[in-house]
UniProtKB/TrEMBL annotation:
This is VWCE protein. Keywords: Glycoprotein, Secreted, Signal. The gene is Vwce_0. It comes from Calcarius ornatus (Chestnut-collared longspur). One of its GO terms (cellular component) is cytoplasm. It comes from the Eukaryota. Residues 1-53, 53-114, 111-172, 178-238 form the VWFC domain. It is found in: Secreted. GO terms for biological process: cellular response to virus.
Length: 269
C-alpha cells in the first residue's frame, strides 16, 4: 500500500487485521482479543478489543468501582471491579414478621392466628361460632372482629323488621289499601263502592289497588218528547210528555198553548 515495512515489524490494518512483514511478504490475520473479565465494555472508537476498565451490566455502562442495584431490586447490591460485576444479597434470619409488607429487604411470612382453639392463616376471614352477623379477619397474628355492615333502608322505623336468622333489618311491604281516598272532597270509599262524582251520567268504582275507575253512560232510548228527571242520567220516555216546559203524564189531556180551541193528549208509545 505504498509504505515500506521493516522485516519482522507488526501493525494493525483497518477492520482489526493484524499484519506482519516476513521475508518480503505481508501476512495478515484477524486480531485475537483476550478478555479477562466477565462484563467488559465495548471497544472504544478506533479500537478492536473490549476493555475491562469498566463494566457493561444489563445494557448499562458502569464505571470502575461503581456500586449499583440491579433492575429487579430485591435489595441486591452490585459493584464493578476490573470489568467484573459482583452482587451481594442480604441474609435474612428465619422467622415471622408482623405485616405482609415489611419496610426492610428481608421477606417474611406473616404470623398465623390462634383463636378459640383454631388456627387461621394471615388474611383469612371467618365468622364466630353460631354468629353469622360478625366477621373476623386474621392480621399478622391478631384477630379483628366487626359486625356485618347493613345497607341503608329508605323506609321509616316502624316499617322495619328483623327476621329470624337475619343480621340486617328489612322493610316490610306497605299494607294493602283499604279503599280509595279522594283528595278533592276528603271522602274515602271502600273497595267495590260505586258512586257518581256529580254527573249522573258518570259512575266510578273503587278498585282493589286503591285506584278509581270511572265510565260514562251512553243513552240509547229516544222519543219526540222525553222527560228529564232530576238526578237521572238518561231522559225517560215512559213517564209522560214534556210540552212547552211542562210535564204531563200518560193519557193526560191539556189545551194547546198555540190555539185554545185545540185539546192535546200525552200518548207514550
Amino acid at each position: 500500500r505504498g509504505i515500506s515495512r521493516e522485516p519482522g515489524s507488526r501493525w494493525t490494518e483497518p477492520g482489526c487485521q493484524s499484519c506482519t512483514c516476513q521475508g518480503g511478504q505481508v501476512l495478515c490475520d484477524t486480531v485475537s482479543c483476550s478478555v479477562p473479565c466477565s462484563h467488559p465494555l465495548p471497544a472504544p472508537a478506533g479500537g478492536c478489543c473490549p476493555t475491562c476498565t469498566g463494566c457493561l451490566h444489563e445494557g448499562v455502562a458502569r464505571a470502575e468501582g461503581d456500586v449499583f442495584s440491579p433492575s429487579d431490586g430485591n435489595c441486591t447490591v452490585c459493584v464493578c471491579l476490573a470489568g467484573n460485576v459482583s452482587c451481594l444479597s442480604p441474609e435474612c434470619p428465619p422467622g415471622s414478621c408482623p405485616s405482609p409488607s415489611p419496610a426492610d429487604c428481608c421477606s417474611c411470612t406473616p404470623e398465623k392466628c390462634h383463636f378459640r382453639g383454631r388456627t387461621y392463616a394471615h388474611g383469612a376471614r371467618f365468622s364466630l361460632d353460631g354468629d353469622d352477623c360478625t366477621t373476623c379477619v386474621c392480621q399478622g397474628g391478631e384477630v379483628e372482629c366487626s359486625f356485618t355492615p347493613c345497607p341503608v333502608l329508605d323506609c321509616p322505623q316502624h316499617q322495619r323488621q328483623l327476621g329470624p336468622g337475619q343480621c340486617c333489618s328489612t322493610c316490610r311491604d306497605p299494607p294493602a289499601p283499604a279503599g280509595c281516598f279522594l283528595d278533592d272532597n276528603g271522602v274515602e270509599f271502600p273497595v267495590g263502592q260505586i258512586w257518581s262524582p256529580g254527573d249522573p251520567c258518570e259512575l266510578c268504582i273503587c278498585q282493589a289497588d286503591g285506584s278509581v275507575s270511572c265510565q260514562r253512560t251512553d243513552c240509547v232510548e229516544t222519543c219526540p218528547y222525553p222527560i228529564r228527571i232530576p238526578g237521572q242520567c238518561c231522559p225517560d220516555c215512559s213517564a209522560g210528555c214534556t210540552y212547552m216546559g211542562r210535564i204531563f203524564s200518560n193519557n193526560e189531556t191539556f189545551p194547546s198553548a198555540l190555539d185554545p180551541c185545540l185539546s192535546c193528549i200525552c200518548l207514550v208509545r
